[in-house]
From TrEMBL:
Pfam families: Isochorismatase. GO terms for molecular function: hydrolase activity. It comes from the Bacteria. This is Cysteine hydrolase. Gene3D superfamilies: Isochorismatase-like. Residues 10-177 form the Isochorismatase-like domain. InterPro entries: Isochorismatase-like_dom, Isochorismatase-like_hydrls, Isochorismatase-like_sf. It comes from Dyella dinghuensis.
């Protein structure tokens, strides 16, 4: 569904735009994702709306058929990209699962602020972003996905998630469409 509205009580959730994740090869340049993320962060700050920065520092312990990479990460793996311009009032969620709501304080934090809608962006479209969007939807939030502010490891998985999964979870829009709607909503 195309973007129609933004609630007055919206929060921005930035998923895994951290040095370690952004060093992986992606279908679309992580620098482009960071540029769009920065624009959305600035727009949310201008309107005094909450920013949630999510990073990942581990993995869920279950077995999978896919071989696991080494569990040791570089010292700066979880550091947020400088383009995000992290501020002291940004809420930080550190996760060890795909979705940002699993075993974290994210839902309680958003509810304490009266948030009814979340705008989600980040890397990877089909993993951290999709999982967080599914969980937000299941928690009853209105979900908006900034489709030009995300990427995946392959274009195929990125496009599948955007065209087949996201329309079931919420509304999609570009960074500029979201900023324009945000400006109109908070004028």
């Amino acid at each position: 569904m195309a973007l129609t509205t933004l609630d007055s009580k919206a929060a921005l959730i930035v998923v895994d735009l951290q040095k370690g994740i952004c060093s992986y090869p992606t279908a679309r340049p992580a620098t482009d994702v960071a540029k769009h993320a920065s624009a959305l962060i600035q727009a949310f700050r201008t309107h005094h709306l909450p920013i949630v920065l999510v990073n990942v520092t581990g993995r869920a312990p279950g077995r999978t058929e896919q071989a696991r990479a080494s569990s040791s990460f570089s010292a700066d793996f979880a550091d947020f990209l400088p383009e995000l311009n992290q501020q002291p009032h940004d809420h930080v969620v550190t996760k060890k699962a795909w979705g940002a709501f699993t075993h974290t304080d994210l839902d309680a934090h958003l509810k304490s602020l009266g948030i009814t809608q979340v705008v989600i962006l980040g890397i990877a479209t089909s993993v951290g972003v999709e999982s967080t969007a599914r969980q937000a939807y299941e928690h009853g939030y209105n979900v908006t996905l900034a489709i030009d502010a995300m990427t995946d490891m392959t274009e195929e998985t990125h496009q599948y998630t955007i065209t087949k999964i996201f329309p079931k979870l919420g509304e999609t829009g570009t960074t500029q469409e979201i900023i324009d709607l945000l400006d109109a909503t908070h004028a």
